[in-house]
Fold each of these.
Amino acid sequence: MKSILITGGCGFIGSNFIRYVLEKTNYKGNIINLDKLTYAGNPKNLTDISKKYENRYFFEKADICNFQQVKDIMIKYDIDTIINFAAESHVDRSIFGPKDFIETNIFGTFNLLEVARELWKDRDGVLFHHISTDEVFGSLGDTGYFYETTPYDPRSPYSASKASSDHLVNSYYHTYHLPVKLSNCSNNYGPYHFPEKLIPLMIMNILNEKPLPVYGDGKNVRDWLFVEDHASAIWLIVTKGRVGESYNVGGENEWENIQLVNYLCERMAFYLGKEKDYYKKLINFVKDRPGHDRRYAINCDKIKNELGWKQSVNFEQGLDLTIKWYLDNQEWVKEIQSGEYKNWIDKNYQKR
Ligand code: NAD
Ligand code: DAU
């Protein structure tokens, strides 16, 4: 690998992944970050990296749905590896308006595959790695896990669009022999997480003493993974995983939402010098998310046994790191909340 194209590298996981590869692996080649800069993309996530690695890190503002833009960038940098993070990623937004999800997640992935098929015809040493989610497997009851072999059963427009893109990626492997790999990961958390998602939203609302909206009965379960552990898993799969395979990645760390929100209230009280239960009065049970998946739980034995991956941070440590990051980076939060994100929230969420 000499020249890796990261799509969506200005988002939460993409920017953490770029930082991880440049700072914590022995990769010596170039990284090209292709990002459309939607409301969720912020080049400032990588300001330090763009200065420190100015000869190896390059940013291109472009849309994965635009064939010519992607092709020109692939040729310009002689790309041999694509890691596709670019997506519309928020389930609630996909319920309010699925169109962007269909365009970017399905058509955008198709477009990237088409460029790769054209430019990499007869070329060895190339790879298309697709970043996917555990949500494609649907919803679990009180027991059981998602395995790589679990049949897909997506239930929101977001997860349906991700499932569709996964199927397209696999179809290019079988039909055109494009070398592909996939990873399906559980809920990430950590620095640069957009504050519309549960953990950063709750941290910010606690800080500002605003209501903490818990959907339904709060007993939905998610499996949380620190974002840098997702990055290390992707890097292992890209460098050592088997072509044509998918790998599950998860935290093995299941929490009911209400249990997690209570815990966040306690940790925030600790950092802000309040009594342990002070912020719990802000908890507000609101109307449930339509089609709200009850429980996600990942079995990640395959990546552990085959590639030797393991989580490096336990949840309590990871959450403390995350809380401190948000407390130290209020300017970052204010800036992204001042634009399109804020307008969208004002329009859609205040109605509930
Ligand atoms: P994010 O919303 O924070 O970032 C998405 C990035 O993609 C943004 O920088 C955005 O500008 C860019 N983008 C959107 N549309 C684009 C387009 N048409 N062309 C180019 N760039 C575009 O998302 P995230 O949470 O970092 O998720 C990244 C990937 O990981 C997604 O594919 C998501 O489905 C997957 N995933 C996320 C999680 C999670 O917990 N966040 C878990 C598993 C898998
Ligand atoms: O499982 C992986 C997925 O995790 C990724 O594919 C998605 O991109 C990512 O956004 C995330 O999806 P979720 O829907 O699980 O994450 P979210 O943070 O939106 O919600 C987590 C849980 O918290 C979910 O059960 C809904 C609930 N919730 C969420 C918000 C935003 C609330 O109760 N209140 C809220 O305000």
Amino acid sequence: MIYDLIVIGGGPGGYLASERAGGAGLKTLCIEKANVGGVCLNEGCIPSKTLLHSAKVFDYAKGGEKYGVTAENVVLDQGIVIKRKDKVVRTLVAGVKAKLKQNNVEVVNATAAIKGRTAEGFVVTAGDSEYIGKRLLIATGSVPSLPPIPGLKEGIQSGFCLTNKEILDLKEIPECLTVIGGGVIGLEMASYYHSVGSKVTVIEMLDHIAGNTDSDISDVLLKEYTKKGIDFKLSAAVVKVNADSVVYEKDGKTESVKADKVLVSIGRRAQTSGLGAENIGLELNRGTVVVDDRMRTNVAGVYAVGDVTGKMMLAHVAYRQAEVFINNILGKKDVMRYNAIPSVIYTNPEVAGIGETESTAKAKGLDVEKVVLSMNYSGRYAAENERGTGICKILTDKKNQTLVGVHMIGNYASEIIYGAAIMIECEMRIEDIKEIVFPHPTVSEIIREGIFEL
Ligand code: NAI
């Protein structure tokens, strides 16, 4: 059987590309070794957001007094939380399967490897079968980075150390949770387990949390979570994992923290081992598939999208890359741009940002004007957040009079940031943004407030 397109990997990049290709009439095969939906749907974005919503409901129930609401004996049942999470995942996976079927995509549940190339196309093995595709899309995603820290491998084997996958399935809430890495996964899971009662310690190598997030925003997040009771060890490098503790070096001293469970969230790496890239001369750079802005690799007819490209490891980047890929193979010119990609951390309060931060703008030599406002400038934010500490930072390009960055901490930020994405993607002028009518009262009005402060 010769396919027009073989897609390796059924995560957000792979399943969206498969659906679109099948929908456009291409004979499409999608090979996925686990569940369609990938990490995002099965062990990442969706399950973590389900857990975080339960934590938010729990926090609201416990902290209602300041809003005039008291409740007694508020209990979180971890068993029910996990069951609900599994149900949400099952429903969405079924939705993806149905959509693939609706678009006539054939799905094979096996591990694929590229065997080589014949005159007919690329040969891919999966299970005991061989398939030939005229075109190939690699969407194999990423796996957690597990550096050679002494004791870490043994910790993973014994179940003491967990990755993003196992942390979402803990039947019991650990009394003490130590998180290695204060990035996105680390902070979201620290947020959940702190809310549901664990004593949480976060060990982060850098002197700040939340990676590339604008520094004023990550400072507010750090203060909020320190106030809530999470213990942050910054500028601290983990050097060893023991059977019941994590050892780290900070300020030249060796210290350790006891733990019942350890989450290892120190980044992810592209999944290309065993793929057979060498069999077709596919160019890799430190394990990631090298692509251009149309998702083409160095081998004509072979493309890649998603985490495996090592660009920005976000499901929404994979979606857009998949669209760029499909448009290009269908003859419609489209290029991938990374300047208006929103990023969100689903802590409570949420963090969302897009475009340049002050430091990236400076590095690029942009002449920017900045406005930083308390989120309390939004009436709805003030109404719903007693003593809220949220802020919104707006950065504009002085020369072009356009918006280049928006960074927020405060709830609903995740749902508002796409508005800024439109403004940046469309290179709207500040004068034009001033004419947009925002619904009142909404938290989104903070962007309007900021723009009028310029
Ligand atoms: P990350 O790159 O966000 O954070 C890893 C952190 O670990 C960094 O701050 C790094 O300095 C620190 N680190 C590295 N080695 C260390 C060591 N030995 N000791 C202490 N700290 C160390 O990676 P993370 O959190 O694992 O997330 C992986 C990917 O998943 C990211 O690319 C992220 O974008 C994506 N993701 C996105 C989410 C969202 O959009 N809300 C949610 C969860 C994950």
